[in-house]
């Protein structure tokens, strides 16, 4: 008979481990994690800023890139509080409802990122394989409407697929240890603590992964097979290189998203004997590396993004120089007036 009583979800408290086995080093581990969070949030923030403010980037490709940056920022913010809270303040407790909410948003932004990558692959496919139709579908007057519809469809898709996972968690009872071996609430980690039958939750979680990331990856692969087939039919080597270079950034981003995700699935399914910190570090890599690397890749590989960032920096620099000049002029004028006043006072006293 278990020594742990059944606990209802309303009063349930989980304990987050952070990085199991490396508790002593949490202060040091927090340094690279903090740097990664700052890099991800600032990098994606800059991408969003230049796309919104630079009119030359108001094109479908860059609108989709802004959607990718938004999901990356959401993914970072979903785990930031609990991860840094553990490392800095040893704040390990999290209520059941807060845990479920965090799980939902982590999975939602993951599904949304996969969906955005699929949409970007379709965008690249139509632009290269059928450029005339691309120009008629995404005219200047229809771009924003299409983008908003796509964004809404992605959000609805993620919510509809993930809501049953959240609702089914509430039927579970927890009478064993309430210690989670991650720095955030991870769905497989939570359902393993249940002392009731969790087969439905496990199957539904796997189904949600296959229906979203699995299906999306297949369609992305098919899109690129068609794209490569079309590029190889282009006679001019220069044109082939130009067409391929437009997709290289997206291919890199897709690889960075799916390789850690697939690796994490393999570690959880077949790495039962691996040390606990391996599972935890893989789970953090899967959530942090794509948001960190995506803005770097697009900044390095996309000339228009580089130009827009450089332009915004120059504008900001000019603004700062003007502000400094006006401040200095103000202070110098104040000093000059003070000197004149003191000189007049001295002359009056001599008289």
UniProtKB/TrEMBL annotation:
Its main location: membrane. Keywords: G-protein coupled receptor, Membrane, Olfaction, Receptor, Sensory transduction, Transducer, Transmembrane, Transmembrane helix. It is a multi-pass membrane protein. The chain crosses the membrane at residues 27-52, 64-89, 104-129, 150-169, 203-227, 248-271, 277-297. Residues 43-298 form the G-protein coupled receptors family 1 profile domain. InterPro entries: GPCR_Rhodpsn, GPCR_Rhodpsn_7TM, Olfact_rcpt, OR51/52/56-like. SUPFAM superfamilies: Family A G protein-coupled receptor-like. It comes from the Eukaryota. It is found in: Membrane. This is Olfactory receptor 51F1-like. It comes from Galeopterus variegatus (Malayan flying lemur).
